[in-house]
Amino acid sequence: QVQLVESGGGLVQAGGSLRLSCVVSGRTSSFYRMAWFRQAPGKEREFVAGVSGSGGMSSYADSVKGRFTFSRDNAKNTAYLQMNSLKPEDTAVYYCAGRPLGVKEFKDWGQGTQVTVSS
User: Fold this and answer.
1) How far apart are CA 98 and CA 119, in angstroms?
2) CA separation for the pair 7, 95 (Å, rounded)
3) Which of 5, 16, 25, 23 is nearest to 110 (CA)?
4) Which secondary-structure segment (H or E) carries 33?
5) With CB atoms counted within 10 Å of each terminal CB, which end of the chain scores lower, N or C?
6) What is the DSSP letter of 35?
7) 58-60 and 68-73 as β-strands: parallel, antiparallel, unpaired?
């Protein structure tokens, strides 16, 4: 099975930056799409950013657009989420997710990494 492991979370002041990493193991293809989701206390999990298998296309939630950048290095089997200008409302557990071409929903999930932004 495909396994995803996130890292890079931590505590940062508002306006600061963090870089999250997601290491992928198991069988995937060049069309394996990946995404970041987050879940804040008392709220449902929400989409943050997504990237195509090649890394050529990306999408972002309006709340993070212009501040976050999603990239991937397939040679290293790793995806990254660069988070700049962080806000307290960005505080959440961030999850890496993936799905192959033809699969409707994200089925592969990491365990999550905590991001806390102080004011």
Assistant:
1) 32
2) 10
3) 5
4) strand 33-39
5) N
6) E
7) unpaired
